[in-house]
Amino acid sequence: LPQQLATLAAAAWEEARQSRQQLQAQQQEVAQLQEQLSRARQDGERWASALQRAQREALEREATRGAEQARQQELIRDMKGRLLELLREKDALWQKTEGIDTPTPSPSPRDAGLCARCRKDFRRLSRRYDCRLCQGKVCHACSVDAGKQGRCCLLCYQQRHPQAM
């Protein structure tokens, strides 16, 4: 009986020693897992912070872009308004000047070397034309080819053909 008790005690001691070893191994594993969990939480917090910062920056960029787009749209509206004003102004000026007839140029002997319309000096490279209607001397830019009638000044052409201009 004492020998059985000794074997049982030795087996119990061995079992206790193995349980202590398993417990220590499990405690070490728990410590490692807790350390990994702590690092994962820190990483998660860093990622969450980075995500919040990125979202904040994206919202700021979007707000800036929206403000810039609004300014550009306002500028476009202003430019369209100004364009309409200029077109109205041009039409008003055109209507004011439409009925004005400039007198037919009469070339004077001393101005024989100048265009009757633009007063450009006739040189070797600028050709002189005689208007077939008023007999004035005009340059190429101030004359129109009137077909069978020959060249005539713009003023005479406009008077003869008001629908053409």
Automatic annotation (TrEMBL):
Keywords: Coiled coil, Metal-binding, Zinc, Zinc-finger. One of its GO terms (molecular function) is zinc ion binding. The keyword Metal-binding applies. Gene3D superfamilies: Zinc/RING finger domain, C3HC4 (zinc finger). Residues 16-57 form a coiled coil. The keyword Zinc applies. SUPFAM superfamilies: FYVE/PHD zinc finger. InterPro entries: RUFY4_dom, Znf_FYVE-rel, Znf_FYVE_PHD, Znf_RING/FYVE/PHD. Residues 109-161 form the FYVE-type domain. PANTHER family: FYVE AND COILED-COIL DOMAIN-CONTAINING PROTEIN 1 (PTHR46753), PDZ DOMAIN-CONTAINING PROTEIN (PTHR46753:SF3). This is RUFY4 protein. It comes from Aramus guarauna. The gene is Rufy4_1.
